[in-house]
């Protein structure tokens, strides 16, 4: 049950290995890794800067997790999200979930990712050779969410 | 009241936070914004599309009709884009 | 694009690490690990034996993958499934999927797991202190599937 | 025709495969099963719930009405339980 915001690069498999061994009696381990793609519409992304309102991101992610835990029976979760400067191909976000049966961790992990996209106070700026651009929230990401919950 | 700005809004306004005094009465977020807009062209431009911004008081999302007091922390920012 | 059936134990994080680095331009990496749970309804599971009709499992998984690839745009996948004797807490199955955006790999990975459960020719037998029992296919697993596809 | 048995069915019948001859005419899977059941009590018991078993010819799922010939590989097994 851990939420980490860090500047430092991380290797997803180190976290997944430890998480799986910490949850050795769980039948199902879900994980999702989000990485920086090296191109955005044919422009080379040199780096991205991720801004964070840390206090609020903690509050929001905990709220989301509490809501999802009432709906889906899981054993454990881990969220890692980077901020600061991140290079193409590096990991931005990692979500790992352990449960007894697979559907619980799928629903929890996917739901957490969906909510994080529209509630967690991170902002991405993409840096190109000829300037920088703030990344807009995707319309599609708002459509996955049932905001009445 | 402390106001925090993030991302593009912070860039437009040129600072990440400031403290304003709204006195003893509570005010709506929209009133706070309107007063900021009167300051100068920079604020006026930064807040020209209030509906495309998001507002949080003490780490909870609120809308423009929410009432704030001097002890609150108001954060204003474009829709988040993490993950 | 790999499907491995193996007797040998495997460490999920080794596969995930290599897979993620092989797909360094993908924005999203999904993974699912299924492990042997040490108990089934309060009975200690000493081991499970997994029987495999290998030729048919290959055919069926490839069919499922072809079907899912027509629906979801992904960059790469990996399936690892053990057979033979497997101990509690060891991994049985690993599915890893790379895509540009997260929803594609979620839908592909979850769909592949759903279909695998009802089409791939593996059979589990649980060994307890006082005997063995073949594991029945779960009703619920049949309900996730749209067999008309 | 080669017949393969798996899992509990293999255990009940006591072998994993056998070859039978169905001659020049093609036969339905259900006819093949009925002939096997006539052999002895073991087969009769193993196949007593044909609807709870699954059938595959040359690695593709088929139903009991599917026609087979001597060159086919018929596999019979309980519903799979991998993953």
CATH superfamily of chain B: Beta-grasp domain
CATH 4th-level superfamily of chain A: Molybdopterin biosynthesis MoaE subunit
Give, in order, the helices and strands of chain A: EHEEEEHEEEHEEH
Question: Would you count the extended β strands of chain B for me?
Answer: 7
Mean pLDDT of chain B, to the nearest integer, reads 97
User: Which CATH architecture of chain A is right?
Assistant: Alpha-Beta Complex
Give the CATH level 1 class of chain A. Alpha Beta
Q: Give the count of helical stretches of chain B.
A: 3
Strand count, sense and closure of the main sheet of chain A? 4 strands, mixed
Distance between the termini of chain A: 22 Å
- Overall, the morphology of chain B is globular
Intertermini distance of chain B: 30 Å
The low-pLDDT segments of chain A are: none
Report what the structure shows.
The complex is a heterotetramer, with 2 copies of chain A (149 residues) and 2 copies of chain B (83 residues). Chain A is α+β, with helices and mostly antiparallel strands and 149 residues long. Chain A has one domain (2-128): Molybdopterin biosynthesis MoaE subunit (Aldehyde Oxidoreductase, domain 3, Alpha-Beta Complex), CATH 3.90.1170. Helices cover 35% and strands 36% of the residues of chain A. Chain A is globular. With 83 residues, chain B is an alpha+beta fold. Chain B has 3 helices and 7 strands, in the order E-H-E-E-H-H-E-E-E-E. In chain B, strands 2-1-7-4-5 form a 5-stranded mixed sheet. Chain B has a two-stranded antiparallel sheet with strand order 3-6. The mean pLDDT of chain B is 97. The C-D interface holds C 34, 50-53, 55-57, 59-60, 81, 92-93, 113, 116-125, 134-137 and D 4, 6-8, 10, 56, 59-61, 75, 77-83. Strand 2 of chain A pairs antiparallel with strand 2 (28-35) of chain C, so a sheet runs across the interface.
């Amino acid at each position: 049950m851990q939420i980490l915001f860090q500047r430092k690069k991380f290797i997803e498999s180190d976290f997944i290995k430890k998480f799986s061994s910490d949850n050795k009696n769980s039948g199902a381990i879900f994980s999702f890794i989000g990485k920086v793609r090296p191109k955005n519409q044919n422009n080379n992304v040199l780096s991205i800067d991720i801004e964070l309102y840390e206090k609020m991101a903690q509050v929001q992610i905990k709220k989301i997790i509490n809501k999802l835990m009432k709906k889906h029976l899981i054993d454990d979760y881990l969220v890692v999200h980077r901020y600061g400067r991140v290079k193409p191909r590096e990991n931005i976000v990692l979500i790992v979930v352990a449960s007894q049966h697979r559907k619980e961790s799928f629903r929890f992990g996917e739901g957490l990712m969906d909510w994080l996209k529209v509630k967690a106070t991170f902002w991405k700026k993409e840096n190109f050779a000829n300037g920088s651009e703030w990344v807009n929230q995707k319309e599609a990401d708002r459509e996955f969410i049932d905001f009445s919950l | 009241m402390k106001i925090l700005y993030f991302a593009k809004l912070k860039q437009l306004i040129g600072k990440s936070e400031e403290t304003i005094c709204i006195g003893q009465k509570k005010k709506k977020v929209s009133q706070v914004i309107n007063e900021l807009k009167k300051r100068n062209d920079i604020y006026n431009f930064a807040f020209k599309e209030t509906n495309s911004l998001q507002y949080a008081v003490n780490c909870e999302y609120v809308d423009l009709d929410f009432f704030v007091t001097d002890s609150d922390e108001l954060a204003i920012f474009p829709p988040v884009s993490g993950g």
